[in-house]
Amino acid sequence: MKGQILKALRERSDYLSGETLSEQLGISRVSIWKHIRSLKKDGYVIEASPRGYRLVSSPDLLLPYEFPDLEQRIHYFPEIGSTMDAARELAKKGAEEGTIVIAEAQTHGRGRLSREWLSPEGGIYFTLVLRPRISPAYAPRINLMASVAVAATIKKLCGLKAELKWPNDVLIEGRKVCGILAEMDAETDVVNFVNVGIGINANTSVPQFEKTVTSLKDALGREISRKEFLSALLVEIERRQALLMEADLLEEWKKLSATLNKDVRIMSLGEEVIGQAIDIDATGALILKGQDGSLRTVLVGDCIHLRE
Amino acid sequence: MKGQILKALRERSDYLSGETLSEQLGISRVSIWKHIRSLKKDGYVIEASPRGYRLVSSPDLLLPYEFPDLEQRIHYFPEIGSTMDAARELAKKGAEEGTIVIAEAQTHGRGRLSREWLSPEGGIYFTLVLRPRISPAYAPRINLMASVAVAATIKKLCGLKAELKWPNDVLIEGRKVCGILAEMDAETDVVNFVNVGIGINANTSVPQFEKTVTSLKDALGREISRKEFLSALLVEIERRQALLMEADLLEEWKKLSATLNKDVRIMSLGEEVIGQAIDIDATGALILKGQDGSLRTVLVGDCIHLRE
User: Fold this and answer.
1) Could you tell me if B133 lies within 8 Å of chain A, comparing CB atoms?
2) pTM
3) DSSP strands (E only) in chain A
4) Segment A223-273, tens digit of pLDDT
5) Which of A1, A25, B74, B207 has most Cβ atoms within 10 angstroms of its Cβ?
6) CA distance B58 to A19
């Protein structure tokens, strides 16, 4: 309901009377007043006058009411250990597809292969619960889907060119701006749920000495609206969910890929593999061509681009 | 320690003195006496005389002390909801590879695709925690491995020919004697743990009207020693774990397969696929040849053999 109130206030540049709001939303004027008071507590500045209410400013937070169409599906935390852990708990209890856990900051943010993901305030950190009816063999396509959606959103909202590094890093000018982690719970032949965690260096500042990481703010030279970005990103993801098993998804990934046609070195389960990245297969695995011309499929690993 | 005491008693047909036991195991005679008392409570009949202790009989239970080499890794329950649920809890808390949950009966035994698995006393029900460093795409090989190990154990201990139905049913004369369920927790490209649940109709009796199910007891015409069977099966599984990614495993499965070369109908994620089963690929997927000669790979589904 707070989302509906904010939406109504935003659609009006002038004051909106409590009476109009009450009629429009079908709740009592006392309820309206209680929600307004709660929004003020959250940091919204709302002017109240005899003419009604007027939204003066909103806090820069990813509160559920900022996403009125999704409000019911969002679990919001000012700070949390890890959105992945919270989402797993929810998914195990049956949370439906589309459930989202958002945090302003994570104290134990996780990256791929049990690594840490630094998650200070100013970034965008969320985990999305998905329940695709696919074999676990195809689950890496979910990472591809998420990385393509992030790159598309960066292009659309920031006008910046984002590239993808296999398996699922999003880069701007060769520097990582977003990490993606997908964890799944499955029978060995069919997925129960896949939780996709996306961490974006949005309005965070990256130290000058750090040459492999960037943020949207640093790349753009100004802060972005995190809620606009997250809204747009969720739309881009949803649009691609239906295409998860389509060839189009792989084509889109290939077009954005910074890995294809490069010589790469991959650490794969303790083994080092070197070759030219020539394609990805239907499961999202990378196909490498060795110096002797032999082909090899790599399912998992950390990829290093050896040269441009 | 109770396992060590039982082992020592079993190696001796005559009485074994408390003093000898105490020296052999390096614990006090009072400790020995306490363990003997505890074993008696569990149903072991142990005669105590001035000449020492003698094991008269053991209960027909899969108690951890019956597997002295594995005792530390076994979590035993006379009755449990589901060994899969207990094993998942343990694995999430970091239980090491080889942890085993055994139950004499399950009140909510689970089969593939959220089906029920009837688990009355007399069967063998356990879940094994594995942590293979493989991509989830290869996880179905764990089901193949388990089913091959079960068939080999049936052959070895019961002298019966067991066949395998894709993906992982074990059949005797066309009737199901064992079900296997593997659940995994993974990043989309690397496995964290796979829990393999095996349910065997051992000394249970199958109603006469039931034409698709059998038990070892019904097939053999006598009861088997469940602990001998489980001991042997765990050895067969362990021997094949190292071979998980080897071609030998697939060859062994193919030799035991009742599905290959048959016409089959498979319900795969809501879609029906019909064809001749001609092979399995490296991920354990079934390769079907359609009437028009086209090949198709099926990753998941329920398989029905259409004719001999």
Assistant:
1) yes
2) 0.86
3) 45-49, 52-57, 74-77, 100-103, 124-130, 162-165, 169-172, 175-187, 190-200, 263-268, 271-280, 286-289, 295-298, 302-305
4) 999 999 999 999 999 999 988 999 999 999 999 999 999 999 998 878 899
5) B74
6) 81
pLDDT of residue B195: 97
Give the residue from A161, A144, A259 showing the smallest Cα distance to A196.
A144
Let me know the angle formed at the C-alpha of B148 by B142 and B151, rounded to the nearest 5 degrees. 145
Can you give the pLDDT at residue B232?
A: 97
pLDDT in tens, B207-219: 888 889 999 999 9
pLDDT at B258: 95
Residues of chain B in contact with residue A300, where contact means CB-CB under 8 angstroms, are 135, 189-190
Interface test with A, best of B127, B188, B266 (most A CBs within 10 A): B188
Identify which of B143, B235, B240 has the alpha carbon closest to the alpha carbon of residue B184: B143
- To the nearest whole Å, the CA of A297 is away from the closest chain B CA by 12
Q: At what angle do helices A140-158 and A226-241 cross, to 10 degrees?
A: 140
Q: Which residues of B touch A283 (CB under 8 A)?
A: 137
In CATH, what number does B64-256 get?
3.30.930.10
Which residue numbers in chain B have pLDDT < 50?
A: none
Q: What single letter denotes the amino acid at residue A132?
A: P
- Listed by start position, the domains of chain A span 2-57, 64-256, 263-305
| Of A133, A88, A128, residue with least CA distance to B114 | A133
Q: What ipTM does the predicted assembly reach?
A: 0.80
**A267 contacts: CB under 8 Å, gap ≥ 6:** A301, A302
Instruction: Work out the number of other CB atoms within 10 angstroms of the CB of residue B249.
Output: 20
- CB B285 to CB A187 under 8 A? no
CB atoms within 10 A of CB B42: 12
- CATH T-level topology, domain B263-305: SH3 type barrels. (2.30.30)
Cβ of B270 within 8 Å of Cβ of A182? The answer is no
What pLDDT is attached to residue A228? 94
How much is the pLDDT for A207?
Answer: 84
Q: Is A90 helix (H, G, I), strand (E, B) or coil?
A: helix
Q: Look at the block and give the residue holding tokens 């935003």.
A: A10
The Cα–Cα gap between B16 and B13 comes to 9
Range B2-57 has CATH code 1.10.10.10: yes
Closest CB from B134, B136, B285 relative to A139: B136
pLDDT tens for each residue of A152-206: 999 999 999 999 999 989 999 999 999 999 999 999 888 999 999 999 999 999 8
pLDDT tens-digit series, residues A94-124: 999 999 999 999 999 998 877 889 999 999 9
B32: tokens are: 């020995």
A250: left (phi over 0), alpha (psi -120 to 50) or beta: alpha
**Within a 10 A sphere around the Cβ of B228, how many other Cβ atoms?**
12
The pLDDT assigned to B113 comes to: 78
CB neighbourhood size of A171 (10 A): 23
